[in-house]
Amino acid sequence: MGMPATHRTWTVDEVWALPDDGNRYEIVDGELFVTPAPTWRHGDAAAELHLRLATYASIHQVAHIKVAPPDVVYGKHTMVQPDLFAVPLVEGRKPRTWEEAGRLLLAVEVLSPGTVRADREVKRRLYQRQRAPEYWIVDVDARLVERWRPDDGSPEILTARLEWRPDPDLAPFELDLVRYVAEVTGE
Q1: Cα 34 from Cα 27, distance rounded (Å)
Q2: Which pLDDT tens digit goes with each residue over 126-139?
């Protein structure tokens, strides 16, 4: 997520009225962030993680996994588009809108050079404030995932294995991070 575009306070409606120019527009507490289209590596990292999470969620019927750009709206001045996110099922089916889903079970951002401040600071604080049970920052270059929970003062740094348990009665989602990074980078 790039630097803020201006110092004025933006609304979700104003962002929705912007032209479709290939950039991603998000606002947090009225601060506008503009991000260019992601790199291939970023896209590969998000796509590979989406495939794995969606397979797990479908098999266990625990969530619906979305990939950017659907909007997550937290009021008049906050709208973000996580790279990936999980929302609860509604009466056993995937929700049709953010309003129907109502909350995040998981938010994931794949780190890019231009998104470091927004992902690690601005969006992290937002997801913690909104009580998203887990927020992952995937750093492919550093070969790690930072896991944040609502009350954390610092992230859990994962380099070998990532586990997500959206339902304590079911087997967890497990990701071999070494293999995942190798597949994303082709190394």
Answers
A1: 9
A2: 999 999 999 999 99
Give the predicted TM-score (pTM) of the model: 0.91
Q: What is the pLDDT of residues 31-60, one digit of tens each?
A: 999 988 788 899 999 999 999 999 999 999
Q: What is the CATH number of the domain that holds 116?
A: 3.90.1570.10
CA–CA dist 108, 26 (Å, integer): 15
pLDDT at residue 1, as a whole number: 45
Q: What is the mean pLDDT of the chain?
A: 92
- Does a structural domain hold residue 170? yes
Give tens-digit pLDDT for 14-27: 999 998 888 889 99
Give the Cβ contact number of residue 144 at 10 Å: 19
Per-residue buried b or exposed e for 44-66, using 16+ beta carbons within 10 Å of the residue's own CB: bbbebbbeebbebbeeeebbbbb
The number of distinct structural domains making up the chain is 1
For residue 95, the enclosing domain spans 39-185
**What is each CA distance from 29 to 6, 108, 109, 150, 179, in whole angstroms?**
13, 19, 19, 18, 37
Q: List, in order, residues 6 or more apart from 150 with CB less than 8 Å away.
A: 128, 131, 132, 133
DSSP state of 2: -
Q: 27 in a domain, yes or no?
A: no
Which residues pair with residue 64 across a beta bridge? 87
